[in-house]
Design brief:
There is one protein chain. With 668 residues, the chain is of the alpha+beta class. The chain folds into three domains: 130 residues, no CATH class; 171 residues, no CATH class; 323 residues, no CATH class. Helix content is 34%, strand content 18%. Strands 1, 2, 3, 4, 5, 6, 7, 8, 9, 10 and 11 form an eleven-stranded antiparallel beta sheet that branches. β7 and β8 form a beta hairpin. α4 runs antiparallel to α19, α5 runs antiparallel to α19 and α7 runs parallel beside α19. The two termini are 12 Å apart. The relative contact order is 0.17.
């Protein structure tokens, strides 16, 4: 339909100098009474007039500020200068994120500092600030780009895509609603996806980590061949060295409640787990101890292997070798059978037994002093009651085994991680050595071990069980119990064998390399591999030998800052794109002279015949026009209520020319 300015019905145009009041007749009292309908006026007009009751608006309220005279576009005023400075500052805010990224990059590889902690605090709020700035700057960019293209000439679809692209969802909505997947639309969606990426990249930009220094060094541990220097070569040698090994053995035994389940002994020596308890942990040759520092590991001895030359810091890994005994028992029971070979001077006896000689096959007390090969049958005989002569009798097998263990130490706190069994005989330990081991060292230990703490003591039977017997019965409660005998037969054969193994190895390891067991070894041992034991008065005492093993050490450095370069790149890319968009939008804003009227509700009143406004005002921006017309009552309704088909438009709400929309009515 043709447009005629409101207030003229004769078809003539009004000039800008005409009186505004003659062209904008508005009666506020129209809200106070129903309009008189003449003709077939569509229902609802009167109701709408009532709904606007109380609203007041007059051209007088805007006539003083409305631009009645023609004027140039985009004039430069002090207010525009202030806005330009503000826009420049706002457009430069992405530099803040670029600076944060560059500062963080400079901290890469440096030690933790208060300055870096402050930077991390600033980065923590970036996921909140970055999306806000991104929405503000990128939204302005798309809006100013659309307005600039509209000034130069573009399609309505492209203009709608750009101006309406204020978030990733609105950009996607435009693509779907316009039914046109254009390059600009897809690019706008991808650009908006940079907002969460930029925020999260700042959060994940800077981290802390400790560096690692890998090195290889040498440690030394007690030579496995020191076993051949054991003092268990006979009763005379045992008596000569009793004062040394007895103290070590009893100290380990009496402190067992503290160190029984720990990976090192009382002096920090490395203990080896009981191999048969872990041999089924894996199918590999190396058997893994899954929780090396746990308290559910059974160790073969209360005394460990001395190790010297360990670094004080870092994690070191190395291998050691050692031979240890293992005892398994097939039976353990109580009996009051007359033990004719039991001497009343003892409460406990250990001895080899002969299972092969025909005359001994049906006897339990057929002792021998020879073992031709492993396993060596032995018998444990312990007095349970000296009044009724009730005994605990166990039939067991004694075996010597050779192991290699992988040890890991954190500083000087060590634990065995893996173990494997090696052949018993090798170049250093030939068959002759093993024969001496079975028929001299082991035999002497069986004879001497049972009198560890009551040697040459009168009436030993009357004094009750030895400390080791009491320990085997109950390792947690055995100290201070006097004049009583323990019932070892109450233990299962397996448990008795485990505890006898621990006691046997503890006694055995205290008889060789004794001077090296109590720790505090001189630094020269790590250098020379020898612990000098001989003195000017005692020259016959052999030195203790230590063998070398290569240790791999990982030492952690002080905590340092570490840049995640992937997130650094993401933050720099997002920030640079945002900065470029912000400056581009700023330039487009000030080179575009067309008033910003796109997307504002007030723009619907421009040259609208159903919304009477003063002539002119086409140079006003959308917000400027909205500010001047903020009290103008408007409605989207039917501006042809008397016609068969309605017409929908934005119109002044308090006139009879606009009616409510009706679902039952047709519109063009």
């Amino acid at each position: 339909m043709a447009y005629e300015p409101v207030g003229r019905t004769d078809g003539s145009r009004t000039s800008i100098g005409d009186d505004l009041e003659t062209r904008m007749q508005y009666d506020a009292g129209s809200y106070s009474s129903d309009p008189s309908a003449t003709g077939p006026v569509h229902r609802g007009v009167g109701d709408q007039a009532k709904g606007a009751k109380g609203a007041t608006w007059s051209s007088e309220s805007i006539s003083e500020q409305w631009p009645l005279q023609s004027q140039k576009l985009a004039p430069m005023t002090p207010w525009h200068g202030f806005i330009m400075v503000f826009d420049l500052i706002l457009a430069s805010t992405p530099i803040m994120f670029i600076s944060l990224a560059l500062i963080a990059a400079r901290l890469d590889g440096t030690e933790i500092s208060d300055y870096g902690s402050g930077l991390k605090e600033a980065l923590l709020i970036s996921p909140t600030i970055f999306p806000l700035l991104f929405a503000a700057l990128m939204g302005r960019f798309f809006r100013h780009l659309g307005l600039w293209l509209a000034q130069r000439g573009t399609t309505l679809g492209r203009l709608e895509q750009l101006v309406g692209c204020q978030s990733v969802f609105s950009a996607l909505e435009r693509q779907i609603s316009l039914r046109s997947w254009s390059i600009i639309g897809i690019a706008s969606i991808l650009v908006w996806l940079l907002s969460p990426v930029g925020g999260q990249s700042a959060l994940r930009l800077l981290d802390q980590e400790s560096g690692e220094i890998h090195s290889t060094g040498q440690i030394r541990y007690l030579s496995p061949m020191e076993v051949m220097k054991s003092i268990l070569t006979g009763a005379s040698s045992v008596n000569n060295g009793r004062s040394g090994f007895t103290a070590i053995c009893l100290a380990a035994l009496l402190s067992s409640s503290k160190v029984k389940d720990t990976p090192v002994d009382l002096w920090g020596n490395v203990k080896l787990p009981l191999y048969r308890h872990i041999e089924n942990s894996t199918s590999d040759e190396w058997k893994t101890i899954w929780n090396p520092t746990g308290n559910n590991i059974t160790y073969a001895s209360l005394i460990g292997i001395p190790v010297v030359g360990l670094p004080t810091d870092g994690v070191s890994t190395f291998n050691i070798k050692a031979r240890q005994w293992d005892i398994t028992c097939s039976s353990n029971e109580g009996t009051n059978d007359n033990q004719t070979d039991f001497k009343n001077l003892y409460t406990w006896q250990l001895s080899y037994t002969d299972k092969k000689t025909p005359v001994c096959q049906n006897q339990t007390r057929c002792n021998t002093e020879m073992c031709s090969g492993y396993p060596c049958p032995i018998r444990s005989l312990s007095l349970a009651s000296n009044e009724t002569y009730f005994f605990s009798v166990a039939a067991c097998d004694l075996t010597l085994e050779n192991f290699e263990a992988q040890v890991q130490c954190t500083g000087r706190a060590c634990a065995v991680q893996k173990m494997r069994k090696l052949p018993l005989l090798d170049d250093d330990y030939p068959i002759g050595y093993d024969t001496a081991m079975r028929n001299m060292f082991a035999l002497t230990q069986l004879q001497q071990m049972t009198s560890l703490d009551n040697h040459n003591t009168a009436a030993r039977v009357a004094r009750g069980s030895t400390n080791m017997e009491r320990w085997m019965r109950d390792p947690s409660r055995f100290i201070g119990l006097l004049y009583n005998n323990v019932n070892l037969y109450e233990l299962s054969p397996q448990l008795f064998g485990d505890r006898l193994t621990i006691g046997y190895n503890t006694y055995w390891q205290s008889t060789y390399g004794t001077a090296s067991l109590a720790g505090n070894l001189p630094d020269s041992v790590a250098e020379t591999g020898l612990l000098r034991v001989a003195t000017p008065d005692i020259t016959a005492t052999p030195d203790v030998e230590f063998v070398a093993s290569e240790a791999s050490t990982v030492t952690k450095t002080k905590p340092m800052y570490k840049i995640n370069w992937k997130w650094f790149t993401a933050l720099m890319v997002c920030s640079c794109i945002l900065l470029a968009a912000a400056y581009t939008g700023l330039v487009l804003k000030y080179i575009t002279i067309a008033p910003d009227i796109i997307g504002y509700a007030s723009s619907l009143t421009i040259l609208n015949p159903y919304v009477p406004t003063p002539t002119g005002g086409t140079t006003l921006h959308g917000l400027q026009r909205a500010a001047l017309l903020r009290d103008l009552p408007v409605r989207i309704g039917d501006v042809s209520p008397n016609e068969p088909a309605g017409v929908i438009a934005l119109a002044k709400a308090d006139t009879e020319q606009v009616a409510r929309l009706d679902r039952q009515r047709s519109y063009i």
